[in-house]
Design brief:
The chain is of the alpha+beta class. It has three domains: 109 residues, Butyryl-Coa Dehydrogenase, subunit A, domain 1, CATH 1.10.540.10; 104 residues, Butyryl-CoA Dehydrogenase, subunit A, domain 2; 149 residues, Butyryl-CoA Dehydrogenase, subunit A, domain 3. It contains twelve helices and seven strands. Pfam families: Acyl-CoA_dh_1 (PF00441), Acyl-CoA_dh_M (PF02770). Keywords: FAD, Flavoprotein, Oxidoreductase. Belongs to the acyl-CoA dehydrogenase family.
């Protein structure tokens, strides 16, 4: 049976709109905010308003009958988010992460919130707070606590590497409601940043994505209403913390798409440099019969293509309500490894031009590394994939 790998035409406007933003808004200010870490990109304010209006229109479209094809498949919000991330990351990953109203916490809300919560939090800009000083990729090791106190919860703990932590107006905090219950007791809470007891301790100095702020956020007896707990408050040991982990099943393909967008930018620049040097890419000749740099380019491009196809698959499964934990991790692992390889090889082949700040290749190489780290490192993704393929639990395979 043939497979149609072309994007549905209803996404054409999304591709055009987001690519124009990447080309005409992101690229011109990319170096400016790379050199001015922690400065807020004011140029994004208007884009944030337009993006909010666009999401409202897309919500109507994706909620209608036109999202279902004759074959009964759905191409909806996950696919749209994938395309937007790919196109905008072609412009600048850090600036994409800085657009007002589009925090990683919003993905968490979309993944596990009740219909009432989706409506109530529809207009917020939410960061996501998971990682703590005592652990990195092991999300089950959360030690931040949420203690029931009447109609509220009291949250205590400290979170690190919170993207948009100093800019967002809300933050989704992962906390345990019962340490003795283990993973099953880990829940996520929507907390307004102006709540008493919430404080931004510091901003991190980073290798890349400098346009995006990354904060340490402390919670000291932070009181939030019980209905700010996303999803069900019940501690279900059978489901462990599957509810909050569903967030990763939605966001990992988006991160993979970011890697695909950045990888494409590097490949386009490398192709231009090779062509100008008199080494055009010829797909009609064997790679081994061409210049070594051209042969390497063809290898990198094929790796890029494989990453994009895996990413499409993961998003399509999410839109069609199919379990995609394995595919989400596969796309993230493949694309994260691909983008670091592509950008570093582009710098290497570009030599002095690739290493110079006169262009953006060296910046892209620095930005790329985080895409192989956050939302779960390369090693964590491989561990998740191995567990799924072998049918092992987290206890069996560590």
């Amino acid at each position: 049976m043939g497979i149609n790998l072309e994007l549905p035409k209803k996404f054409d406007s999304t591709v055009d709109r987001t690519h124009l933003a990447a080309e005409h808004i992101f690229r011109p200010i990319s170096r400016k905010y790379d050199k001015a870490e922690h400065d807020y990109p004011v140029e994004l304010d208007e884009l944030g308003k337009l993006a909010k209006q666009s999401r409202a229109k897309e919500k109507e479209t994706d909620g209608g009958a036109d999202q279902t094809t004759d074959a009964g498949t759905v191409n909806g919000p996950n696919m749209r988010a994938l395309i937007s991330a790919r196109e905008m990351s072609w412009g600048d990953v850090g600036l994409l992460l800085s657009i007002p109203g589009q925090g990683l916490g919003n993905a968490a809300i979309a993944a596990v919130a009740t219909p009432e919560q989706l409506e109530r939090f529809s207009g917020v800009w939410a960061a996501m707070a998971i990682t703590e000083p005592g652990f990195g990729s092991d999300s089950a090791a959360v030690s931040t606590t949420a203690t029931r106190d009447g109609e509220d919860y009291l949250i205590n703990g400290e979170k690190i590497f919170v993207t948009s932590g100093s800019r967002a107006d809300h933050v989704v905090v992962w906390a345990t409601v019962d340490r003795s219950a283990g993973r099953a007791a880990i829940k996520s809470f929507v907390v307004p940043m102006d709540t008493e007891g919430v404080s931004v301790v510091r901003l991190e100095q980073k290798l890349g994505i400098k346009a995006s702020d990354t904060a340490v956020v402390r919670f000291e007896n932070v009181r939030v209403p019980a209905d700010n707990l996303l999803g069900s408050p019940e501690v279900d040991t059978q489901k462990a913390f599957a509810g909050v982990m569903q967030t990763f099943d939605n966001t990992r393909p988006v991160v993979a798409a970011m890697a695909v967008g950045l990888g494409r930018a590097a490949l386009e620049e490398l192709r231009r440099m090779l062509t100008e040097a008199g080494h055009p890419i010829d797909y009609d000749k064997p790679a081994a019969a061409q210049h070594a740099a051209v042969s390497e380019f063809i290898r990198l491009e094929s790796d890029w293509e494989a990453s994009w196809l895996l990413t499409l698959r993961a998003a399509w499964m999410a839109d069609n309500s199919q379990p995609n934990s394995t595919e989400a991790s596969m796309s993230k692992a493949k694309a994260g490894r691909m983008v670091t390889d592509v950008t570093n090889k582009a710098v290497e082949i570009g030599a002095s031009a690739g290493f110079s700040e006169a262009g953006l290749l060296e910046k892209w190489a620095r930005d790329a590394k985080i895409l192989d780290i956050f939302e779960g490192t390369q090693q964590i993704q491989q561990l998740i994939i191995a567990r799924r393929v072998l049918g092992k639990s987290s206890t069996d395979l560590k």
